[in-house]
């Protein structure tokens, strides 16, 4: 029995990781996490960048505003046109549409304000 005790102590001692092994495991794990985070950051940056040969998006949601729990208004740009749409749970309806001038200035803002006033009046009329 005395001979078996040192043998079992030797086998259990070799199974437990030493401090150097734990340090190596921790360092490897931290390196993998840092590489993973760096790769995710790089992919996100590349996804948003416009590379050579990539065309500009033709459809953009410029702005949207919630009007209620299930209603909202969105301003959508398609090529060089802007479309104001009303969105409900069951339908999407065009409220106004206009050409976007090349030099986006105060004129676009005035068109947007006029279209919003027109859409609000139509919305109020529909509620009655």
Short description:
The protein is of the alpha+beta class and 128 residues long.
Would you mind describing this structure in some detail?
This protein is α+β, with helices and mostly antiparallel strands. The chain folds into 2 domains: about 5-50; about 60-125. Helices cover about 50% and strands about 25% of the residues. The protein has 3 helices and 4 strands; from the N terminus they run ααββββα. It has helices at about 5-15, 20-50, 105-125, and strands at about 60-65, 70-80, 80-85, 90-100. A 4-stranded antiparallel β-sheet has the order 1-2-3-4, covered by helices on one side.
How many structural domains can be distinguished in the coordinates? 2
Percentage of residues in helical conformation: 40-55%
Return the average pLDDT rounded to an integer.
78
Q: What characterizes the major β-sheet?
A: 4 strands, antiparallel
Number of helices: 3
Task: Considering the chains and any ligands shown, give keywords for the structure.
128 residues, alpha+beta, 2 domains, four-stranded antiparallel β-sheet, 3 helices
List the helices and strands and how they pair.
Layout: H1 4-15, H2 19-48, E1 59-66, E2 72-78, E3 81-87, E4 92-99, H3 106-127
């Amino acid at each position: 029995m005395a001979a078996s005790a040192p043998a079992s102590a030797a086998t259990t001692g070799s199974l437990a990781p030493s401090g150097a092994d734990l340090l190596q495991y921790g360092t490897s794990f931290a390196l993998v996490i840092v590489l993973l985070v760096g790769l995710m950051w790089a992919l996100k940056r590349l996804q948003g960048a416009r590379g050579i040969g990539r065309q500009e998006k033709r459809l953009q949601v410029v702005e949207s505003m919630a009007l209620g729990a299930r209603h909202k208004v969105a301003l959508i740009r398609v090529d060089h046109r802007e479309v104001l749409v009303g969105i409900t749970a069951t339908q999407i309806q065009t409220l106004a549409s206009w050409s976007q001038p090349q030099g986006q200035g105060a004129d676009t803002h005035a068109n947007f304000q006029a279209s919003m006033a027109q859409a609000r009046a139509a919305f109020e009329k529909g509620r009655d």
